Amino acid sequence: MSFGLHRLMPRRTTVEAWLLLLPSVVLLATFAHIPIVATLIDSFYSTPRRNRPAHFVGLDNYRDMVADPIFWKALINNLIYAAGTIPAAVAIALAMALFVDSRLPGRSLLRMAYFTPTVLPMIAVANIWLFFYTPGYGLLDQIAILFGGHTTNWLGSQHTALAAVMVVAVWKEAGFFMIFYLAALQQIPPDLREAAAIEGASRFTFFRRVTWPLLMPVTLFVLVNAVINAFRTVDHIFMMTGGGPDNATNVLLFHIYEIGFKFWDQGAATALTMVLLALLGLLALAQFLFAGRKVHYQ
Amino acid sequence: MSRIEVEHLVKDFGGRAAVNDVSFSVERGALCVLLGPSGCGKSTTLRLIAGLEEPTAGRIVIDGRDITHLPSKDRRIAMVFQSYALFPHLTVAQNIVFGLEVRGVARAERDARLGKVAALVGLSEYLTRKPGQLSGGQRQRVALARAIVSEQPVCLMDEPLSNLDAKLRQEMRVEIRALQQRLGMTMIYVTHDQVEAMTMADQVILMKDGAIEQAGSPVDLYQAPATVFAARFVGAPPMNLIAAAGPEPSVVTGVRAEDMRLAPPTGNGADAEVTSIEYLGADTIVGLRRSDDGDAILVRVPGRASARIGERAALAWDPAHEHRFDRASGRRLSAFPPSTDRSPA
Ligand SMILES: Nc1ncnc2c1ncn2[C@@H]1O[C@H](COP(=O)(O)OP(=O)(O)O)[C@@H](O)[C@H]1O
Ligand SMILES: [Mg+2]
User: Exposure of A16 by Cβ count < 10 A (0-12 exposed, 13-18 middle, 19+ buried)?
Assistant: First the structure.
């Protein structure tokens, strides 16, 4: 009797589990997995033209991509963009969270102020910064002139354009990440700080030995998001530079858009997409493998 | 010489005094219990001594050194928090030696002290666990070990046992008291549980509304409560207050449950009706109600009581066991006759 039950129970629960998972599996498959596989297949086919349907070309699309200097320019730009914006956004978010977590007057106003950029659509953010960067009468130049400096074409110069769009991304993201850090900071019981103070720990020691390790799960979460955003958010590049000047602000996704929807080269665009996906997958995996072990989850 | 002296300590929170002119001193190596109901200012007093709050007024002196405005870390104190305040991401060993590490104690000495303290509190087998993998009692021991390992002369404890179950609480009471005596620590121990105060303390400071109600040994508090509040707060069951007993209406008379006897009913108006019977094994608490007042009177009867609910009985006691209080001020009128050899319950 009990033998029979034992054999029955696991199967029943497995079936139920799968049934419960089914809706999300269907949705994920329809909108994520199947398109990815379709894209992968497409990347081995030529771009269909009016008089020439797509045909299998093997790795030709990838070979063309590697031979294209603009691809390399976009990839390197994107890596610089990621390497610059991610640490800056995370560090500023943490600093802001630590600051508004302390007992200072008017902190709720400050929290709101820090969070505002997050609520604004990227298009609006780009507009604001377009004004800041406008040569001659933009905010930055007005300040520069006030102090006897000269005007700078921040977005028009190859040397400054990428940095300029990176600043916008950091400005937009830091407030968002701050909210996660702030929530985590408020989860840390205040008596930990008191216990550490009695034991003789300075504020810095407490941060290094207690706060920072306890924030690790949030840091990991924020990092994963920041990495994805660094390869995904291109709205402001459309608005502010259009990838220019001379591809100085061209990044992978923007490049994919141009290849796919301006030049209608589906083969090349799908190959590029696969590269971007592989890159993101590898980065996420690396983060979990590297950080996952060190993270203390409550 | 007094080890800890607290002089006219005041702490205001937004105009309300949580601690209001509190003064006491604790002898070297003594265990002093701050006792009182929730919200009476015990924790605030302790936190003032720990340097976690700034006093509004007053002075705190430890061993002749005025520490009133020193940072916590320079006060040479250790503290056990009610929540234990363990670092959840550190192992038991790392939690215990956290302070030693911060203070730059050499590794060899750290390890030696860790080993000794872990053995002392029975944690040797759990050193590599995280607090989340421990039971409540074990976490309590980690907090205790962290306080002991620092070898500070003064140890402060804020309701350290309140999160434990009754059986464990009793074990830990004995254990903490033994450790305190063995290590010669001067300890201030906060609790709302009068049993902890009675069983552990050399000296009890009973607080009410931010002020000291009575200070003395457990025996003093039990045998000669200074106020009605003290009489009712210390001892279980609380002292019976008998209204309008005797000729003076301005006097409240108190008699402890064990000083009362049940006598055959006399038939006059002084008889009471049995309304509850609580069998405790060694004795029984019989609750009675007199028709003319509302409060139940509790009588401790040895063994099993023969009384039944609904029966009537007369209450009797030796006048020598009466505690007399002024009705208006609640203060004690008579000194308790020093005749007893009872130990506190
Ligand atoms: N940080 C604080 N801010 C304002 N009021 C407080 C604060 N801490 C304690 N109090 C008040 O002071 C009184 C005494 O509190 P506390 O010392 O914690 O009592 P106990 O430990 O005896 O239960 C309470 O009325 C409490 O509300
Ligand atoms: Mg308290």
Answer: exposed
pLDDT under 70: residue ranges of chain A: 1-11, 291-298
Please tell me which residue of chain B has the smallest CA distance to A297: B89
CB contact under 8 A, A197 and B89: no
Q: What is the ipTM of this complex?
A: 0.84
Evaluate: CB of B41 within 6 angstroms of ligand 1.
yes
pTM above 0.95, yes or no: no
B30 and B127 both lie in a single domain = yes
The finding on whether B284 has its CB within 6 A of some atom of ligand 1 is no
If asked whether residues B130 and B24 sit together in one domain, one would say yes
At B341, the pLDDT band (50, 70, 90 cuts) reads: very low
Q: Do A205 and B87 touch (CB under 8 A)?
A: no
Mean pLDDT of chain B: 89
Kindly report the CATH number assigned to the domain that includes residue B18.
3.40.50.300
Number of domains in chain B: 2
Do B126 and B25 share a structural domain? yes
d(CA B216, CA B225): 10
**Residue ranges per domain, chain A?**
63-292
Instruction: Please provide residue A258's backbone torsions phi and psi, each rounded to the nearest 5 degrees.
Output: -65, -45
Residue B340 placed within a domain: no
Cβ of B216 below 6 Å from ligand 1: no
Q: Which residues of B259-276 are buried (b: 16+ CB within 10 A; e: fewer)?
A: bbebeeeeeeeebbebee
| Cis peptide preceding A10, ω within 30 of 0 | no
Q: Domain of residue B319: give its range.
A: 237-326
Q: What CA–CA distance (Å, rounded) separates A38 from A274?
A: 11
Residues B279, B185 share a domain: no
pLDDT tens digits for range A142-199 = 788 888 777 778 787 888 888 888 998 898 888 889 889 988 998 899 999 999 999 9
- The topology under which CATH files domain A63-292 is MetI-like fold (1.10.3720)
* Whether residue B192 is found in the same domain as residue B250: no
Tell me how close the Cα of B96 comes to any Cα of chain A, in angstroms: 10
CA of B37 from ligand 2 middle (Å) equals 9
pLDDT tens-place string over residues B57-100: 999 999 999 999 999 999 999 999 999 999 999 999 999 999 99
- Asked whether B42 lines ligand 1 (CB < 6 A), one says yes
CA distance A235 to A252: 13
- Reading phi first (left if > 0) and then psi (alpha if -120 to 50, else beta), residue B258 is in alpha
The answer to whether residue B341 is domain-embedded is no
| Residue whose CA is at the smallest distance from ligand 1 atom 17 | B41
Looking at the fold, whether B130 and B81 belong to one and the same domain comes out as: yes
Is residue B245 a part of any domain in this protein? Answer: yes
Tell me if chain B has a CB within 8 Å of the CB of A188.
no
Question: What tokens does B339 get?
Answer: 């005749």
B154 shares a domain with B43: yes
Sheet-wide strand order for B65-66: B16-27, B2-13, B57-62, B65-66
What is chain A's Cα-based Rg?
Answer: 25
| Residue of the CA atom closest to atom 14 of ligand 1 | B41
The distance of Cα A26 from the centroid of its chain, to the nearest Å, equals 26
B135 CA: distance to closest CA in chain A (Å): 16
pLDDT of A130: 84
- Rounded CA-CA distance B90/B83 in Å is 16
